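Hi R.,

Here's the chain you asked about this morning:
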Amino acid sequence: MTDRIARGDAQTIALAGGLLAAAAAVIALTGGQPDSVGLAERYAIIVALPIAAGLYAWRDGRHARFGRVLIALGFIWALPSLSTASGDLAFTLGRIGGWVAEVALIYAILSFPTGRLPGRVDRWIFGLAIADLALLFLPSLLFVDGFPQPSQWTTCETGSCPGNAFQVVTDEPAFVAEVVVPLRELLLAGLMGATVVRIVYRFTVATPLMRKTLAPVVFVALARAAALGGGITLRRIDPGAGATEVAAWVIAFGLPAIALAFLVGLLRWRMLTADALLRLAFGMRRDPHPAELRALIADALGDPSVELAHRDDASPTGWSDGEGSPMTLPLGEPGRDVTVVDQAGRPVAAIVHDAALVDQHAFVAAVGDYALTWEDNQRLADRVQASLEELRRSRARILAAADDERRRIERDLHDGGQQRLVALRMRLELAERTMGRDPLRARALIEEVADDVDTAMEELRTLAAGVYPSVLADRGLAEALRSAALRSRLPVRVTVEGTETRQPREVETATYFCCLEALQNVAKHAPDAGRVAVALAFSADRLEFAVSDDGPGFDGPADGSGLQNMRDRMAAIGGTLRIETAPGAGTTVSGGVPLRAGAAA
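And the predicted structure, written out as tokens:
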């Protein structure tokens, strides 16, 4: 999750930064220093540029912490503007602000681009810089007569600058002038050099993406560190030399230059990561295999050693690779690091990568999210395709079953009702022929015809009930199943939970015939069952049913034609079917159907 600054807060900080830059420029302009206009312009840029860059980084969100570092840097860099004032106190406070600004710059360079000191060495360098400030620079204020000139913070000339407002001795001790002052400046220059060495080292071991981000900062930091070391040396040798003055200007303009380098680095990072994610997205459009997906992730991260792990509770390690084999994450392994990708607060994948990416977890996680989204889409597409195939097969089976049912009805009509009607016609013709010569015989034949008509009507009603029972149409599902239970030769108990509501005909028909098929299977495969139960459960949005028995059960796949017909019936109305059985444990056929809101009661 990104840490973006609120719009109102950004406007407040921008306004405060603008006012502070203007105040620093006014102080420089009215301080009576030589070239006060150029000095005012320089301070306006020194203060405003890091604040502007910090607001960009903070609003971007991905480098919010470093954005806050830059904003703090801009506010700190406003303090040295007091060194352009003509009063001793303001001048002294300004020079102290210059020392603090150098220490703050060391932190900013070491923490780029995350805003955190990445390693123990970085923390040592920054800690020593603070110690140099606290133990050498600040205590020496009590003893020195003035401050070394020329300085990047002011343009006053040696002998014309204000004095040290905090000096407590009359004359500056020789030990301070010859040991403490050179030592503190040498340590500061050395720590700035160590800072540059550190960031150059990070540049050499970084991924190609991070090297392009660090390059502007490395270049400007090298130039300013060289100017700082050279300027301090030249100032000790010949403070009035032209080269010393040039070095002071280079050091001064190195501040806005390095702020600009921070901004350029962040802009390059944003463009390069966007390009990497775009390449990854386009590469995934080619439907890559697991090995190709790993290669695409490696290319996006600039790390050929990348490995992708998936959360797998069935694996002994809890993780598996792209082939499904158990995989152990190299936690704490030198040179390797792990970024875990979460979904809904639960770890679902991990990217194992080079330790050079340790400060880029957000980007690595974004790449992982892309990969997981693609895999989820692939699984969804495969599931949809499998569902479509099953739907086509189910429809084919339903059509075949409908054809079989139509032929059965035709056969039953031909063998039953049609033959009965033919016999009736023959009896009527016989009664007609015997009416004249034997009325009693004809009367007996007509009475027999009446009995045959009743039998034919019963057969037709039975046939119609097999297609769609009249009790189901008239009285609902529960009564239809109770009627079927009464016709069963096994004892069947029907229970209903909830209030029955009438549902569309296809829902009631599919549920009824699934239960009827299950009862027929019990009669066929468990004729000695002592308990057969049919349970219906109605809720606001779902109908559940179950047919269970205490018969012998069975072992093996439940793939008979009757069970397949039941599955097809349920699938046709969006329902589900489950078979639970085991040898000696009976059988339960259960299922559920989603109900439409507003079905008629």
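The mean pLDDT is 79.

Let me know if you need anything else.
M.
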